[in-house]
Design goal:
single chain, alpha/beta, two-stranded antiparallel sheet, 10 helices, binds ligand C2E, binds calcium ion, EAL domain-containing protein
Length: 275
C-alpha cells in the first residue's frame, strides 16, 4: 500500500506494476518505431451489403515490435495518443494510405482512422492538402473516420477542421456510432457522410433484442438523414442476413475479410489487379 499525494491510499498489485512497466516500454519503443520502419498498414474491405462488391478499404495500423512481435493498436494507439506520438505516426498513416490507394487500379474509397489529437492539431487541414497533393490521390476517394470523442472538447476547432477537410472534397464518417454519450447531437453538429455502427451492436444482433432494435434504429436514422450506414464487425452469415433484412448499406468484418496486407487479397478483390 502506498500513500498517494492527495493523502488517500491505493493498492498496487504486482500485475499493475507489470502493466505500467509494459506501457513505459511501449512508450519508449514507439519513439523509434517510425524511423525503424516497424509500422505497416493492413486493409479491410467495406463491401456492399447486398452484392458483396467492395466499395472501399479501411487502413488499420500494425506495429511489428522487434522483441514483442505484433502489438495491437488497441494497446499502442492510446499510448501514442497520450505521448503525442500519434501526430507523426498519424501523418505517416495518412500519407502511406493515400500513396497506396493512389496506386490501386480501381478508384475505391480509402478510409483512414484519425485521432482527436490529430484533428485538434494546428494545421491538420494543411497536412491533408499537402498529403493529397504529394500522393496524387483524388480527395473524393479519401474518407476520415472520426469518433464522437472529437466533440467532447474544443468542439468548434474540430468542426472547423472537418469543415475544411470537406471543402477539399474529403468525406468524413462517424466511427463506432452509438458508443458515445451524445451520438444524436453529434449528428446534428456536423454533416457527416457515413455512419459506422459499432461492432458491439452488430455482434449481439441475433442474441439481443435491444441490440437488434438499436441497429434497426441507426439504419433508419441513416436513411432519414440520407447517410449510408456501414456495419462493422460482421462475423457470420446470420449477422449479414439480419443486416440485409434492415437494408444496411455496407458491411465490414471477418465474415467478409480480415484486415490483410493489400498484396494478400486475391485477384478478384485486389483493387490494383482488377480491371
Ligand atoms: P476501429 O477503427 O473500430 O477498427 C475496427 C477494429 O475491429 C479493427 O481492430 C479490426 O481489425 C477489428 N475488426 C474488424 N472486423 C472484425 C470482426 O469481424 N470481428 C472482430 N472481433 N474484430 C473486427 P484493430 O485493427 O485492432 O484496431 C483497433 C482500433 O485501433 C481501431 O478500431 C482504431 O480505433 C484504432 N486504430 C487502428 N489503426 C489506426 C490508425 O491508423 N490511426 C488511429 N488513430 N487509430 C487506429
Ligand atoms: Ca475505424
Ligand atoms: Ca469502428
Ligand atoms: Ca469499433
Amino acid at each position: 500500500v502506498k500513500q498517494s499525494g492527495r493523502g488517500s491510499f491505493a493498492f498496487f498489485h504486482p500485475e499493475m506494476d507489470e502493466e505500467a512497466r509494459r506501457r513505459r516500454e511501449l512508450e519508449r519503443d514507439l519513439v523509434h518505431a517510425l524511423e525503424q520502419g516497424q509500422f505497416a498498414l493492413h486493409w479491410q474491405p467495406q463491401a456492399d451489403a447486398q452484392s458483396g462488391m467492395i466499395r472501399g478499404f479501411e487502413a488499420l495500423l500494425r506495429w511489428r515490435h522487434p522483441v514483442r512481435g505484433d502489438v495491437s493498436p488497441t494497446e499502442f494507439i492510446p499510448v501514442a495518443e497520450a505521448t503525442g506520438m500519434i501526430i507523426p505516426i498519424g501523418a505517416w498513416v495518412l500519407r502511406t494510405a493515400c500513396a497506396e490507394a493512389a496506386s490501386w487500379e480501381a478508384p475505391l474509397r480509402v478510409a483512414v482512422n484519425i485521432s482527436v489529437a490529430q484533428i485538434q492539431q494546428d494545421g491538420f487541414d494543411v497536412l491533408l492538402r499537402e498529403t493529397l497533393l504529394a500522393t496524387g490521390l483524388v480527395p473524393e476517394r479519401l474518407e476520415l473516420e472520426v469518433t464522437e470523442s472529437l466533440f467532447i472538447e474544443d468542439t468548434d476547432r474540430a468542426l472547423d477542421t472537418l469543415t475544411r477537410a470537406k471543402a477539399l472534397g474529403v468525406s468524413v464518417a462517424i466511427d463506432d456510432f452509438g458508443t458515445g454519450f451524445s451520438s444524436l447531437s453529434t449528428l446534428r453538429s456536423f454533416t457527416f457522410d457515413r455512419i459506422k455502427i459499432d461492432r458491439s451492436f452488430v455482434s449481439e444482433i441475433e442474441k439481443s433484442d435491444s441490440a437488434a432494435a438499436i441497429v434497426r434504429a441507426v439504419i433508419g436514422l441513416g436513411q432519414g438523414l440520407g447517410l449510408p450506414v456501414v456495419a462493422e464487425g460482421v462475423e457470420t452469415q446470420a449477422q449479414l442476413a439480419a443486416l440485409n433484412a434492415q437494408a444496411c448499406d455496407e458491411v465490414q468484418g471477418y465474415f467478409i475479410s480480415r484486415p490483410m496486407p493489400m498484396a494478400a487479397f486475391s485477384a478478384e478483390v485486389h483493387p490494383a489487379r482488377s480491371v
